[in-house]
Predict the 3D structure of the following.
Amino acid sequence: MKALVYGLARSGGAAAARLRARGEEVVLVDRSLGNEDDLSLLRGVELLVKSPGVPGEAPLLAAARARGIPVWSELELGWSLLAPSGTRFVAVTGTNGKSTTCELLGAILRCAGRDVVVAGNIGTPLSAVDEARWVVCEVSSFQLEDVHRFACEVAVLLNLEPDHLDRHGGFEAYRAAKLRIFERAAVAVVPAGLGLEGIEFAPEDPLPAEPLMRGLHNRANAAAATAAARAVGVADEAIAEALRSFPGIRHRLEAIGEVHGIRYVNDSKATNVAASLRALAAYAGEPVHLILGGALKGESFEPLARAIGANVRSIHLVGEASASLAAALRDRETSGDRTLSAALQHAAAQACAGEVVLLSPACASYDQYENFEQRGEEFRELVAALERAALSDPRARSREDDENATPTRAA
């Protein structure tokens, strides 16, 4: 078979490698190769596999469909390679909480003694998985656009809020893409109140144990994971063990350091307004210095502006979205720091012991970074530099020694 793989980032690269390992002839198309408009590359192609980032209206895709060439997402390819061997799938989608819920489900299944791989949009492309008894698969709306046979034992929808409107053109199209996860699912797990058929969950559900993770949104994630685990026969004892021990994931409300009593929290994965609203709710009872901004995604920032309470002591804006955020936050004083480094330095200078510097951008990262992970790692490195500077400052060490000293009892 001759296959064309369009998009050579993480998932496209995995798809190409897997197809070649199977002895297939593979044609590569990518912006970096400058061949996206070369329709002659479709000659003799029997299958086109697209990366999630490739928009559905790309000319090459339109031409492939017109010629009757099947267009698959990388998710469809990965599923088609694993399903014949009896791999069992639990798939998770939603606007927010996907990665956390997938990793929690993976922890639950491991506590139950099951062989499980967590893959999909979470980091390891599905087509990179050679074999597994169970796969917990994070699924994005972009991936669901081009599935045809993809099926799972349990499909989980966590929530539905506006996101990726620049890509889908509107909320209804985004919603329709998300709901495709249920087309061939044996069991559906859905949020209470959305009017969808399936096993309902809610953040106030009784759980086998209280989750270690902070925030009401994480209790909702835990409730969804519990419902999905029960649906595949996992006992409550294993679920409880995982809930008590699972700390959360990198870049999502991740406490990464403390300097002079100021805590730094990396929420770089908050790439939309709804995610940042959850972060604000999780820290509503503490003084916060908030870093916002990045690439625009077509969302309104008005809900974010309404949710920023008096506990938010300073607001620091970075990246492409700075002007739009400043307009939405017109009733609040903001600092146009532009870069993450400048924003962190400014926030750290304004914060006091007992307060929190929170990076929760409410925006994508592509204006200044390759992805939200790179943005989060830079934030981590900047905080580490603050920690090193504090340790090398003898005056700071003296102040901390004085604060931590035990008073001497008088004789």
Q: What stands out?
A: The radius of gyration is 23 Å.
